[in-house]
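Notes from the 1:1 (GR / supervisor)

We went over the backlog. Supervisor wanted to see one worked example end to end before approving the batch request, so GR pasted a single chain during the call. The sequence is below; no edits were made to it. Supervisor asked that the structure be written out right there so they could see what the output format looks like.
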Amino acid sequence: MQQRFKSQVVVVAGGTGGLGKAVSLAFLAEGATVVVTYRSQTEFDALQLAAAESSSRLEGHIVDVLDEAALQTFITDVVARHGQLDAVVNAVGGYAAGSPPWEMPADALDKMLALNLRSGYLLLRNVVPTLLAQRHGAIVNIAAVTAVQHVASAAEYVASKAAAVAMVDSAAANLKGTGVRANSVLPSIINTASNRAAMPDADHAAWPTPEDIARVILFLCSDDARLVNGAAIAV
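Structure output shown during the call:
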């Protein structure tokens, strides 16, 4: 096993969910200290168990990443305790779809923009100053392939993910030449238990696994991708 992230500190927002858990475990396997935000204690307990002997390098904090004051306190505390922050992955997100906009609840767009756009925006605001001061660091925001392949009956979700990709691309232009990079990963439907249950008749074998996507995320956070900035990679 490679140790590309030995002695590095990585924050994974939403690091206990279907994708976030795989990302957290992948970083731990490559030597990183991983600090996750989570909302479900049961999910964090499961992550700790899966981390096994690497659990000593795992930290978890209950943080609402949509609360900027709480997020700012969290990031400040991570940097104060560890003295560095090397990579940040935003795996926070949500999905609401199934009907055209005129048949969806009136607040569907607001919910999607909060979970899929505002979460990444607040993370950028609160981690970039530290990364710029270090003159190094990597940010990866999880969007979705539907950000560029617009499907029917998902307008709110598609709009929020497309906006997230545009936001990260613009931020990457600001970061050019600073040693800090920002990229997006665009998964298709991820092969998780919840997605399989929601779509039992689909061809699950064709879906990327969380581990497949985690490998791409780790590449983007590694020195192997030091020249990759402003990319939106479909998986």
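Supervisor's comment: The first strand starts at residue 9 and ends at 13.
Batch request approved.
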